[in-house]
Each structure stands twice: as structure tokens, then as C-alpha cells.
Design a protein that fits this description.
The protein has 173 residues and is of the alpha+beta class. It contains 4 helices and 10 strands, in the order H-E-E-H-E-E-E-E-E-E-E-H-E-H.
Length: 173
């Protein structure tokens, strides 16, 4: 039993250590001061709320004044969701009552992804997008998903590991 647990911990450590990174910046104007920009690693689906959008994002930053300009400043997003092959999108909650958000494709951002664990260095900031472009992008309303929610992959993994541990416990009892 202890060997199984140790093996699972080792597998989890190896999988979580393979996190890539990407550096990005979004420029803005005073009109977008205080907006939060979200970086998504897939085309936005249905989100019930801003919190759901934020949890699906691989990174986020708030627009603020920096000297004479407004920007998110340099942001590094890292994690398992950051890959060289992902289709990236920037999203902004543009309605004052938080009932909708706008998004645009961040074409070319995948080419800026690097893996520090593989001793790759940053290819520089992806900074070809402005908050005004994102706010003028495709609009989508918040409002919940479909009738059959799909569990996130980690939920399935936890269910599988829990089931295996229960089966081993029953076998030894």
C-alpha cells in the first residue's frame, strides 16, 4: 500500500514539473484602467460567471497606469495548460454589470512558449494586443453551461485513484 502511494506521489510530481511558461503584455488606454485581462489556452466556452472565466484562465493581469501609459505590465503565465500547441485567447469582462465578456485570438502566442525546466529561455513578451482590440472582439454572455457538465481532468484522476485505493483496501480486508 505504501509503495502504491509513493508511486502515485512520484507520478504526480513528474507530471506537475513539466510546466511551460509564456510572457505577455497587453497595452491599454485610460478607458480600460482597472480592467482584468484573462489569458485562455482554448477558445472560450460557456462560463456561468466571472469566477468561472478566471478559473479557466492560465493567467490574468489588471490594467494599470505605468508612467504615462496604461498596461498590464509584463506577465509570466506558467502551468500545465501552457503549451506550444494551444490556441490562445485574451478575454476581458467588458460589461459594467459583469454579464458578458469579449475575447480575441492571440495568434502567434504559442511561438513564445518556453520550458524553463528544459533550460529554454523566454522568447520575449507577446505584446501585439491591446485592451481596446480585446474589448471590440467577439462578445459572449455569462450564463452557465449545458445540461451535462463535463468534469475537469483532475476530478477524473482523483476518482480513479480513490477507486483503486478502495479496491486495494477491500482486497486486504
Amino acid at each position: 500500500m505504501k509503495k502504491l502511494v509513493m508511486m502515485l506521489v512520484l507520478v504526480a510530481a513528474v507530471v506537475s514539473a513539466k510546466a511551460a511558461s509564456v510572457d505577455w503584455t497587453v497595452g491599454a488606454t485610460a478607458a480600460q484602467d482597472g480592467y482584468t485581462v484573462y489569458l485562455l489556452a482554448a477558445e472560450p466556452g460557456e462560463f456561468a460567471s466571472v469566477a468561472d472565466l478566471a478559473s479557466a484562465a492560465v493567467g490574468s493581469a489588471t490594467v494599470a497606469k505605468s508612467g504615462r501609459s496604461y498596461t498590464t505590465g509584463p506577465v509570466t503565465s506558467a502551468g500545465d495548460g501552457v503549451t506550444k500547441t494551444a490556441d490562445y485567447y485574451f478575454a476581458i469582462v467588458s460589461s459594467s454589470d459583469a454579464t458578458s465578456f469579449n475575447y480575441v485570438a492571440a495568434t502567434g502566442l504559442g511561438a513564445k512558449v518556453y520550458d524553463p525546466a528544459a533550460q529554454e529561455s523566454s522568447a520575449g513578451n507577446f505584446n501585439t494586443m491591446s485592451a481596446a482590440q480585446i474589448a471590440a472582439g467577439t462578445s459572449k454572455s455569462f450564463g452557465g453551461g449545458g445540461d451535462d457538465p463535463i468534469p475537469e481532468p483532475t476530478s477524473g484522476l482523483l476518482l480513479l485513484v480513490g477507486g483503486a485505493m478502495l479496491a486495494l483496501r477491500r482486497r486486504h480486508a
